[in-house]
Structure formats: structure tokens, C-alpha cells
Amino acid sequence: MTDQPQRAGRSAVIDAFRLGGVLYIVGYFHLPWYVSYVPGIGNPLVKAAVVLALGLFVLVSGYLLGNTDRSGQWVTRFYRRRFVRIYVPFVLTSIVFLAMSLEDLATFAKSIFLVAMFLPPPPLTLWFVTMIGLFYVLAPVLITASERPVGLLLIAAATMAALLIYHGLWRLDPRIAIYFPDFAAGIYFSRRALPRSPVALVALVALAALSVVPVWLNRPEAGPAEFALEATPCALLAPLAVFTVAMRFAGQFRSPPVLSVLGEASFFIYLLHRPIYRALTLVWQPREPPAQATYILLIGLPLVVAASVAALFITRRLNFHRAPLAASRSA
Q: Residue ranges of the domains in the chain?
């Protein structure tokens, strides 16, 4: 362990994880909605990779938010920034989803009030934003409690208990319980050192490997592995192990300008890919799977990236976003 926590800054590792995880989702895992045959979909390794990608995104979000500047009226400032950076683009995208029949009116209403995870089913794809939005609502409490590890642990444990009790009594989308530990862990390690000794790293990687077993052995008839509460250890330990090892050996590298922009635009890539893919398939839909995949990946995905970068710069001009360095420091 080091004496001081590792700070993110414009970390190439963090931006690479942001961008890589989202590209895996939008450039591969979501392809079956637009391509009639995608090799490997349903493979246990693919299921585990989805859990890893989503867990990493949530872990990194907590890690960056944990460094929030807490001077002055920081809670008010925190919520105002989350509103304009996350909620406004989310609502606008939800309207597009509704207009394109990607969700119905009831799901739209549940989504914009951030209650869809408690009244399933949540919206397609945008469930992740409704979930992360709820985490952000709780974030100031977790950030304040993170000064004392015991306090943070108690609040995180109480939150998990409440989620599981709700799920047992009424039913919620289990993914909010699966990924909440990542968010809490990210906030915890934003103020403390990640494991660095060889023994600690080996132990963490070994635990992460063991945690993949329930996801690997998930039976198809039991439902998707990424929806199973049994995936919770994997959703926490696998991202934490990958993040820790990457920061240990590459955390000193700073993001080049292109990577930092694309890393920050990854949120918009996730938001916009379904409407753009859907619009393209309405314009033209090739008949053969290879042509379908080529159409989406060589035309659709670049359009998504271009639109996302444009959306990022528009929100910056409107003062909705800060530059990546400022954002990562003041969150």
C-alpha cells in the first residue's frame, strides 16, 4: 500500500476504461438488435465481460466523484452539475427514445423520475443512466462518510440491505444492487491507496477469478447472468482487480487529447447509439449478417462517435460540461 491515495487527473487508464467499456457494449454486445447473427453472444466469457465493463464504468464514476471539491456550498454545486451534465442529456435522449418507439410512455415517465429500477422493467439501455442517477443522488452522503471507512461501510451495507429487502418484498431490477458496491468502492479508494504489494495484487486477482465462476456457470434458463444477484461478487472484484492492476502499472500515463475527449464523450456514445443505429436500419437494412455488421460498425458506430463528440462540445459551450481535467478534479 502507498501512503497516499492515487489521484486520477487525466489518467489514460481511466479514459481508456471509459471508452473501451462503452465501445464493447455498443460495438458488440448490443449488435444482436441490428445484426441477425453475432458470433459468441451468449458465451460465458461474453457475459463476464459485460459485467466487467459495466462494473468498471460504475467503479470509475465513484472514483472520480470521490475527489469532489467540498469547499463552500459543495452539495448544491454537486447536484447542479449532475443535473446539467447527466440529467438534461438523459431526458432529451429519453424523449428521442419515446418518439422512436424504443420505450413506451409509462417507461418514459418512470425513467425521467429515476424510479424505473424500482418499478421494472426499466428502459432499454437507459436503465444504466437511471441507476447511476440514483447513485449520484446518494453520492454526497457517501463522499462525506468516506472520511471514516467504518461510516462508509455502514452506509453502503445499509443501502445494500435496503435494496435486497425491497427486492424480496416487491421486486426491483437487480442490477442496481449488483453495481452499487462498485460505486461505493470507487468513492472509498478515491481517498485511499489501491493495493500495490505483489501479495495483495495476486490475492485480489485470485478472488476476482473465483468470482467469475457463478457467472460462467449461469444456466440460460435462469435468465441472463448480468441480471443475477450471484454476479455481484464478480461485478465488484473483477473491475476492482483490473482497475488496480492497470493503475499500478500504467497509472502514471496521462491521456493524450484525443483519448481524453473520447473518454469524456463515452457517456454520449452510450446515450446516442440506439437511436442512431435504429435510424440507420430504418433507412436501409442489409439481408446478410456480415453486411449488417459492416453497416453498423463502419457507418453507424463512427456516426455515433461523431455525434457524441459534437454533443460533448455543445454542452461545453453551453457551460454544461467542464474540460476533462477540471471535471476529473472537481467532479
A: 12-330
